[in-house]
Amino acid sequence: MAAPELFMLSALVVGGAASLLVVTARNVVHAALFLVVALVSVAASFLWLGAEFLAWAQVLVYVGAVIVLILFGLMLTRAPIGPMAQHNENRKLAAIVAVALFALLTGLNVASFGGETIELRTTGAGQLGEVLYLQWAFPFVVLGFLLTVSLIGALVLARREEGEGPLPDPGPHEEIAAAREPAPTDATPIPGGPTPGREIGSR
Amino acid sequence: MAAIYPLTFAALLFSVGVYGVLSRRNAVLVLMSVELMIAAVVVNLVAMNEIVATQMGDPLLTGQAFALFVLGIGAAEVGVGLAIVLLLYRNRANVNVDDAELMKY
Amino acid sequence: MIAELSWLIPAVPAVSAALIFLIGKRLPRHGAEIGITAMAATLVLAIAVAAQVWRANVGVTIDPEGGGGAFLLERAVTLAPLGEDIAVQLGMRVDGLAAMMFVLVALVSLMVHIYSVGYMHGDARYTYYFGLLSLFSFSMLLLVIASDLLVLLVGWELVGVCSFLLIGFWWERKEIQDASMKAFLTTKFGDVGLVVAVVALGGATGSFAIGDILEAVEAGEVSHGLLTFALIAMILGVVGKSAQFPLHTWLPDAMAGPTPVSALIHAATMVTAGGFLVARLYPAFHESAAATGTLAVIGAITLITAGLLALVQSDVKKVLAYSTISQLGYMIAGLAFSYVAGVFHLFTHGFFKALLFLGAGSLIHAAGSNHMEAMGGLRRFMPITFWTFLLGSLALIAVPPFAGFWSKDEVLVSALDAGGYTGILVFALGGVGGLITAFYMTRVLYLVFAGQYRGHGQPHESPASMTFPMIVLAVAAVGIGWVNLPVEAVQARAFSSWVMYDLGYWVEHPVEFHPFLALMATVLALAGVLGAWAIYRTYPERDPMYHLGIVSHVLERRYYLDDLYTDLISRTAVRDLMGPAAAWTNDAVLDGVVAGAGRGAMGLGRRLYRTGDQKGLEGVVNGLGVSALWSAARVRLAQSGNVQLYAGAMFVGVVVLAVAFAVGGN
Q1: What is the pLDDT of residues C117-128, one digit of tens each?
Q2: Domains in chain B and their CATH numbers?
Q3: B104 CA to chain A: closest CA distance, Å?
Q4: What pLDDT shows up at residue C509?
Q5: What is the pLDDT of residue C95?
Q6: Concatenated DSSP letters of C13-67
Q7: Residue B105, CB half-sphere, CA atoms under 13 Å: how many?
Q8: CA dihedral (C22, C26, C27, C33) positive or negative
Q9: Fewer CB atoms inside 10 A, N or C side of chain C?
Q10: Closest CB from C642, C652, C658 relative to A97
Q11: Do C642 and A101 touch (CB under 8 A)?
């Protein structure tokens, strides 16, 4: 077995094992860290396939940005950090489906590409950039647009609505808040009644 | 190099991702599994690109360009997905996917 | 070649609609002037095109062996390729049939536009109304001009949408909303069949262009079974759009819209789209005896049941609505036997029925009510409305020499010539239908115009903007039938040659004029008139229609049976889906037996309206609803709300499909 195939096999083994741990780990932070390993081995497989630019883009975007985002997500949702059951009652169905899917995909791959070989070559960032800005310019612009839209969309979704979540501290801004929301003149709030703003977060 | 190695890698990642998407309760873990599936697709695109290039040459680098697009879309997906998860958390105080069943009969 | 400019005919109303919606409100007449100008221009173009077709088709001697020879102009731009060799084409197909429809649609639409200036005066949504009228005219003309079944389908659906919007024009009232929704959904149900037919024909012939499809069918490239299937599916669309039995129930409800809209859409143009479609694909229908037989039976059942129902209405618009359904039945039945008969009746009916509706609008405007009980004696107050309405009624009753006589005669003659069970059925029911038509129209005339005024307030003649269109259409109602005079001295059968798609075919299959038949039909019509005269002359204020408690023993027992049937059926229909089928058969059989039984028929008509129409068909609808609820209660358990279960099911499906493809592909 030649060297590139050994490298690819090692990426397969490491990446596969890490991904299995991602979906089985009982500790959510561990799962996120195994995801780092899996994505790094994906980047490594890009390198063995000669797609250098993609490999580094993968490392930067996924291992860098996405993992940090996911860790933030875990933190903000106060996921219980520590071992606990993370699976639902669909687990058996999921396992059957996944095994069947893997068998199917592998079978199709062997049937279709069993005899194919890849002549290794290296694609530099310059080459990719050239086609990207000449031949693929329009989809590239659309992608940029999509990223902008998703950024705005994520902001809109995650933004706290007025009156939602914890109320702001009364302080120097009290006057402004009072000006924005004129106090009710004839309906006094019932003491001890539910405050709509607090109810949601405190459940 | 035999083409079957990267393709098998992609198939493995994808199947494992499917298992995670179907079986995990925590929405953030579901998102992580989706990332695995996206990574599998990217691996497949790059591998196919090399197979095609070996057979007939590929001046456009179609597979790699698409892989790059998928990377970008994946990043956007994580951003929006996490925003939705945060919203879910704020409204329901947990992020269990199987608890979010308001749309049932 | 003015015909090269035919594409302007739908384009002008389209531009007009856009302009009215955009700037109509700021104009001194709030958009009406744009609509009227545009329709006038369209009418001029339509007449010019029609004249060119006329010159090309009429009076040309044709070698019977040669065939063809009729005027046909096809121009198309390819819009989008679909796969290897099928393409969607935006094109026009101008021939005699299209030219005829241009004239009909443009003239009636222009008249309705002018009429609406008076009728809709002061309405809060005046501009919106005129925009919709222009939009409708565009859609209808697009349907007519289309050279491609997909574009035709677009026009077909657009007229449906416009009809929905215009029926629900006064949407503040719940029943008007319901009526528009009912009309929309009922016709949509039929449209499913039309879509199936279009796809089947397109798939079988490899093209959606009407010309290609007809060529392929005539060359025998489409298997007979598939052709029959496609045409029967298409008839379902025709039944929905042209309000044929059993999907006719939406049209009477559609009278909730403004009356000029009823004149334009629900009498003259949109409801005739079904007949137009059959005529458009006539060579294909000609190949399938099953399809034409279905048309004949549906038309015959419709013309008699709807005629009976028209007897017992007190709302003048509903009488006209059921009359329209009945006359559409004549068209569809006529098309089963002879291209010219159906198309000619479509043409003449468009004019005189539009006239009658405009007259009814004028009456409603004056009396402030739809009900004939609140009218009476209006002849003295509204002379112009009276005379034009009388002329329209005579045309509908088919008194010679008015328009309706020539076209209805053609239907009856062609049915008799064709012979066979369906021919005899259509001929017999058509003759009896003529008697019923005469009866109910005479009843309307007496109730509305004779005797003393029974309403409140002071009725008055409508303004000139409303009477002018009625006068124009009255002229047409009198004279338009003469374009197909069977007299050699003038230009014999000019209309037939004008609209014919294949002059050779026309030479081979002429429709002869039978003086004896014409006399018989006229006598039947006069009998109906006299019958109504005998009843309504002496008691014009007390309608025996609603005092039929004392009828003969046999008829009473029949009613008892009728009640039993419908009660039983409407009860079981709710629980059992088999009931509705029996209900249809029973209603239809009973109708056939009782048809033509003079005054008894009126009673049956009333019963039919209350039970068959309101309960029997409603029972079907309710039965469908209950069975849907029943199955939904079981199926909904699959909707657990668990997204991951759904995704799992999806992936199972993916695996199964992929295995199937992988195994089946190799």
Answers
A1: 888 888 888 888
A2: 4-99 (1.10.287.3510)
A3: 17
A4: 62
A5: 87
A6: HHHHHHHHHHHGGGSTTTTHHHHHHHHHHHHHHHHHHHHHHHHHHTT----TTT-
A7: 9
A8: positive
A9: C
A10: C652
A11: no
| Cβ–Cβ below 8 Å for C640 and B103 | no
Chain-chain contact of A39 with B39 (C-beta, under 8 angstroms):
yes
Percent of chain A with pLDDT over 70: 74
Q: Decide: C351 and C477 in contact? Cβ < 8 Å.
A: yes
Which among B20, B55, B93 has the least Cβ separation from residue A22? B20
Chain C residues touching B21 at Cβ < 8 A: 644, 647
pLDDT of residue B15: 94
CB distance C17 to C105 below 8 Å: no
Place of tokens 């000619």: C344
**Which residues on neighbouring strands pair with residue C88, listed in sequence order?**
C80
Contact A203, A172 (CB under 8 A): no
CA C294 to chain centre: 17
d(CA C258, CA C462): 16
Q: What's residue A19's pLDDT?
A: 94
How would residue A156 be classed by pLDDT, with cut points 50, 70 and 90? confident
Assembly ipTM? 0.91
A10-14, C148-152, C217-221: least confidently modelled range? C217-221
CB contact under 8 A, C639 and B21: no
Of C642, C648, C659, the CB nearest to A97: C648
| C429, HSE (Cβ side, Cα atoms, 13 Å) | 32
Rounded Cα distance between A117 and A138, Å, is 33
State whether B29 and A31 contact (CB < 8 Å). yes
C594 vs C330 pLDDT, higher one: C330
| Chain C nearest C-alpha distance from A148 (Å) | 28
Rounded to whole angstroms, how far apart are CA atoms C254 and B22?
Answer: 51
Q: What pLDDT, on a 0 to 100 scale, did the predictor assign at position B66?
A: 92
Half-sphere exposure of C237 (CA within 13 A, CB side): 24
Question: Is C629 an interface residue toward B (CB < 8 Å)?
Answer: no
Looking at residue C507, its pLDDT comes to 58
Neighbors of chain B by Cβ distance (3+ pairs < 8 Å):
A, C
Pick from A19, A46, A24, A20: which is nearest to A35 by CA?
A19
CB contact under 8 A, C642 and A111: no
Residues 6+ apart with CB under 8 A from C112: C133, C260, C261, C263, C264, C354, C358, C469
Report residue C558's pLDDT band, with 50, 70 and 90 as the boundaries.
very low
Indicate whether C569 pLDDT > 80.
Answer: no
Dihedral sign computed on CA atoms, order C554, C556, C559, C563: negative
Residues in A touching C658 (Cβ below 8 Å):
104, 108
Tell whether the model's pLDDT for residue A172 goes beyond 80.
no
Residues forming a β-bridge with C86: C82
- The token pair that represents C70 in the structure block: 């009729």
C-alpha–C-alpha distance, residues C318 and C601, integer Å: 18
Phi/psi for C548 (5° steps) reads: -95, 25
Element (H, E) at C89: strand C86-95
First-to-last C-alpha distance (Å) of chain B: 53
User: CA-CA distance, C300 to A168, in Å (whole number)?
Assistant: 77
Look-up of token digits 């849907």:
C628
Query: Could A54 and B74 be called an inter-chain contact, meaning their C-beta atoms sit closer than 8 Å?
Result: no
- Work out the number of other CB atoms within 10 angstroms of the CB of residue B79: 21
- Which residue of A lies nearest to C646 if distances are taken between CA atoms? A90
Enumerate residues 6+ apart whose C-beta is below 8 A from C291.
C228, C231, C232, C235, C285
How would you class C477 by CB atoms within 10 Å of its CB: exposed for 0-12, middle for 13-18, buried for 19 or more? buried
pLDDT for C373 = 75
Contact A97 C655 (CB under 8 A): yes
